[in-house]
Amino acid sequence: MTFIILTIKDTSGFCLWDSKESNYSVRNSPVKDDIVKAYVSACLDEGLVPGIHYAVPDMLNEQGRKGSNVKEPIGKLYIDHMKKQLSEILSIYPQVGIISLDDAQRLSKTQVDDLKQLVTRLNPKCVLWSCHDGRSVQDTIIKSWVWNASAPLKMAGPIVAHYQQTQANGKAFILNVGPDRTGHIPQNQLAVLLEVNKRIAALSSTQTYPAPGPGNAPNANGNTVERLKNLKSLYGQGLINKEDYDRKMKELLDTL
Questions:
Q1: 80 burial class (0-12, 13-18, 19+ CB within 10 angstroms)?
Q2: pLDDT tens per residue across span 11-26
Q3: C-alpha dihedral sign at 102, 107, 109, 115
């Protein structure tokens, strides 16, 4: 992996950060920790680009409208709300390198362009993905978007095949995993992830792919040399400080 994407607002409208634009956030929950800050820090420690998933449909701020069932265009009031929240995120967490807009079909091209200009102005090193540009493709490790104890798992083979097709098209591959109610990734999902990693590593020595298109995350083969390159890239983009860079660089060099 070269990047991770954390869902910080889904279609319910709940914000995983302390949003001043909504009362429906961690600020009014029993958990007062800055989860997103801890997540960003953990990504940078591992030489990974931290990204966020921000759902466009919002049952709270769109008066109960539910997800993809809504068809009408997005009005000025709600797009202004989105801009304020994205501005908050990039101000509080300047190391975020990817913003993935989910279910963005109702956004006009002009609205998407406005959001991209906003993101570029606040953080030129951050990219905004939406369904309009087709820069990424998603799959799930379970046959569901949300964890439940009985959800069947997908096999590693079809996931790797989807990954190969995505990479051949120069796009970023996002594989969704479902944390359980304790916040952990269940062991059966981890087992599939490890098998996927093993098969991709085996492919990397025999197959090459075109470089991902502009703004896409780089291809990863999981070895130390690639992680060194990713770490240098993060440091060069200003997404990791000198102290963390030196520490992580030493750890990686010690493994060679």
A1: exposed
A2: 899 999 999 999 999 9
A3: negative
Contact predicate 79/56, CB 8 Å: no
Q: Rounded to an integer, what distance in angstroms lies between the CA atom of residue 145 and that of residue 99? A: 19
Query: Own/partner pairs for 105-110, CB < 8 Å, 24+ apart?
Result: 105/68, 105/131, 106/56, 106/57, 106/70, 106/71, 106/72, 106/73, 106/74, 107/56, 107/74, 107/79, 107/132, 108/73, 108/74
Q: Which domains does the chain have, with CATH numbers?
A: 1-135+223-242 (3.20.20.80), 136-212 (no CATH)
> Does 53 have pLDDT greater than 80?
yes
Among the ranges given (32-41, 106-115, 133-142), the one the predictor scored with the smallest mean pLDDT: 133-142
Identify whether the C-beta of residue 1 lies closer than 8 Å to the C-beta of residue 42.
no
The overall average pLDDT reported for the chain is 83
Q: Helix 35-45 to helix 242-254 angle, to the nearest 10 degrees?
A: 50
Q: How far is it, in rounded angstroms, from Cα 76 to Cα 134?
A: 25
What is the distance between the alpha carbons of residues 114 and 83, in angstroms, rounded to a whole number?
9
Q: What percent of the chain has pLDDT over 70?
A: 81
Contact 102, 174 (CB under 8 A): no
Residue reference for tokens 């109702």:
106
What pLDDT, on a 0 to 100 scale, did the predictor assign at position 219? 39
Residue 216 is predicted with a pLDDT of 46
In angstroms, rounded to a whole number, what is the distance separating the alpha carbons of residues 130 and 107?
A: 9
Q: Kindly state the tokens that stand for 200.
A: 């991709």
